[in-house]
TrEMBL record:
Keywords from the named record: Oxidoreductase
Gene Ontology MF terms: oxidoreductase activity
Organism of this sequence: freshwater metagenome
Protein name stated in the entry: Unannotated protein
Keyword Oxidoreductase in record: yes
Top-level taxonomy: unclassified sequences, metagenomes, ecological metagenomes
Length: 290
């Protein structure tokens, strides 16, 4: 599980561990990860939680994590690609990718490919991509994926979350084509009060943005516990089929209990999905399921 130090990832990892899953908290700050692991063990003495360093915005770290993890495990029932940043000013990852596209999509694309041996060795394995309702504002700008010519913080976030859904669908098609008994699904939490909004406000200069998000959190947001339900449903519900997208059932998919939800037409575009896959292979150097 990536991004399990706070918000939805923390809740999801804790619920899985408390209900008997053996969970790796894949985090960029291992001290915070250990703190989370200790809190989970305090809630459930038998919980099997392990903390490993993973910065998804650094392909070297992704490779190092995957090699270490594969050295210690031969099967992977569930990979939850959840870590993310939202609507931040333009910045670059260790590999020179625009930070939101690099973190939210490319790092997870590489991670999934590098962990494939354990996924293919586990019949019924699931890969869950955590997207967002904001995928609907996204557009794939294949001529400027990194926003080098024109950048908007929300535009880049929307593109990265659209990429999560295109990746999810293409991964599912490639599992099917290769006859691999794994499946790929996606989820989104609606609007949940987590660190996502405050991190965005801080990186954009703070001020009124904290007040704006604070008001939104109080008036509209659901709790992180509720926001994690679609991910948990996508990860564990036996009736969820490959290619499904799970989100909240309330008005505007902002809150409520999980159900299968629709995607934008851009997210269902197969040509875009193929083009994104090829671009992601080229950019990360991780090639799989050709
Ligand atoms: N909250 C919402 O309303 C909402 C709505 C739609 C979609 N989502 C999606 O839900 C997912 C989880 O977000 P959240 O709301 O739980 O936010 P959050 O509380 O800010 O959690 C984000 C997590 O991602 C981790 N992360 C960020 N960059 C990373 C990197 N380079 N390497 C490894 N970990 C990294 C963070 O680690 P640190 O603690 O080290 O920063 C943190 O654990 C995201 O993909 C987000 O796009 C959230």
């Amino acid at each position: 599980m990536t991004g399990s130090t706070s918000g939805l990832g923390l809740v999801t990892a804790a619920e899985l561990a408390i209900h008997g899953a053996e969970v790796t908290l894949a985090v960029r700050d291992t001290a915070r990860g250990e703190h989370v692991a200790t809190a989970i063990r305090a809630r459930s003495a038998g919980a099997k939680v392990d903390v490993q360093r993973l910065d998804v915005a650094d392909l070297g770290a992704v490779r190092e994590f995957a090699a270490g993890w594969l050295g210690a495990h031969s099967r992977l029932d569930l990979l939850i690609n959840n870590a993310g940043v939202m609507a931040i000013p333009r910045a670059l990852t260790a590999d020179g990718f625009e930070m939101q596209f690099g973190t939210n999509h490319l790092g997870h694309f590489a991670l999934t490919g590098l962990l494939l041996p354990a996924i293919t060795a586990t019949p019924g394995a699931r890969v869950v991509s955590v997207s967002s309702g904001a995928h609907r504002i996204g557009r794939m700008r294949f001529d400027d994926l990194m926003g080098a010519q024109k950048y908007s913080a929300w535009g880049a976030y929307g593109q990265s979350k659209l990429a999560n859904l295109l990746f999810m669908s293409e991964l599912e098609r490639r599992f099917e084509r290769a006859g691999i008994a794994a499946f790929s699904v996606a989820a989104h939490p609606g609007y949940a009060s987590t660190n996502l909004q405050s991190t965005s406000a801080t990186l954009n200069g703070g001020g009124f943005r904290h007040k704006f998000y604070g008001l939104g959190d109080r008036v509209m947001a659901q709790t992180a516990e509720m926001g994690a339900l679609p991910t948990l449903y996508a990860a564990t519900n036996a009736s969820v089929a490959g290619g499904s997208y799970i989100g909240p059932s309330g008005i505007g998919e902002m809150r409520g209990h999980p159900k299968e939800v629709g995607m934008s037409s851009a997210a269902r575009n197969r040509d875009n999905a193929t083009q994104l896959w090829l671009a992601s292979e080229e950019l990360t150097g991780v090639r799989y399921l050709d």
